[in-house]
Each structure stands twice: as C-alpha cells, then as structure tokens.
Amino acid sequence: MLNRLLIALAGTLVVLSGAARAEVDPDYSVVLLTENFPPYNMAINGKNFAQEDNIDGIAVDIIKEMFKRAGVKYSLTLRFPWDRIYNLALEKPGYGVFVAARLPEREELFKWVGPIGPDDWVLLAKGDNPISLTSLDQAKKYRIGAYKGDAISEYLTEKGVEHSTSLRDQENARKLMAGQIDLWATGDPAGRYLAKQEGISGLRTVLRFDSAELYLALNKDIPDEIVSKLQAALEQMRAEGFVDDILNSYL
Fold it and tell me: On the CB side of 214, how many CA atoms lie within 13 Å of its CA?
C-alpha cells in the first residue's frame, strides 16, 4: 500500500512540476496579430503594416498592459487583410489575433481572453435617407455593404441577407455617400469612427440588429496556464477601472 501511495505521489509531483514550468517559462512568447480596426486597433501612420509601438488603439493599450501584468512575452504586428491574419492564428501554434468576435461557430476554434470591449452591429444610412427598419429581414430589399471576412458579413450570409463586401470597411462609408449602397452593415463605434476619418458625419442608425463582445483569440496550442494568466490580468485591470479609462480616452 505504501509503495502505491509513493508512486501516486511521485506521479502527482511530476504533473505539478510540469505545470509550474509552463507557468514560469520565461521564454514563451505569443505572436500577436491585428488589423486596422479603429478605434480598437490601428497603425499610427495609417498604413496596413506596422509593428510594436507603431500600433495603438483601445484593444492595443489593453492587451499590452495585460501581457505586461501577466509576465508573458509577445510580439505585435498589424497586417492586412483580416482573412490572412485570422487564418494564421487559427493554424499556427503560438499565434493570436485581436479583436475577434466570440461567436458560437468560432467557440471551439480558439482559446479566448476577454472581453476586451463591445461591438454593436448596426445598419447605417445617410442622414437624409428616410429608410425605416424594424428587422433585418426588411433590409433584404436594399443594397448593403459590409467588410469582407468580418463577423458581421458572416452573420448576414447566415441570415440570407445578400450584400457586397469591401477589403477595407471605410470604403463602405464612401460607397454610402456616393449612393453605391443604401445601407452599411458595420460595428458601432467602429463605423462612426471610420466615417469620421473619411470626413463623413451625420450618418443615421437605421437598425441595431445584433451585438458581439470582442476578444483576443489564441491558437489552441497555447498552454492553458498562459491563457489563465492573461485572463486574470484582464479581470484585475477591469476591477481597477483601467479598461473603462482606456475606452473613455478614445471615445
């Protein structure tokens, strides 16, 4: 009996030792990817490629502080388009992408840290457009523009709502003003921020049809210990009011 207990204890110590090593591994580093998605993440120079301190935004500020508090190393790169960086995070061990909507169909594809912030889904129209809607079904008779590869575009497809897509979401703001589309399916506050950057204001919310919480999506190969440390750091930041302060500083 004593031998069995010693063997069991030894096995437990090996497991705990392995977990401890994973928790304190000073060399583990996460490759973080993001895109231009103001005001959550954006290149300071406005380009579609940037690294490290040349990237800012609500999510960037939050995630940098989160990794610092968790003691986890990382590299940060902003690239284009979203489809590419999303698939890299999905397929490559040690990679993560943000900000990503945590949808049921994505739930088992990643390990998640968040939420980082909200993203309401809206249909925007020009301020003088009289369109009035109470449901997404009613929008099917209008020309709708969305961002290629984005969760909103995927949602419209699932609901059978035909729409055109653009490689950059701000292109839809220009299409709206040019009369090429009737409605712009986008996020709020992201859509209004992007429109403002294009010199466009006065857009009207015709319908608020869904909402999502935005997260850091991590490749499933990343150790659970790393994910737990990051989540704990974020929760501490939120309790201290750090997350709200960052949100308010941009909006």
Answer: 27
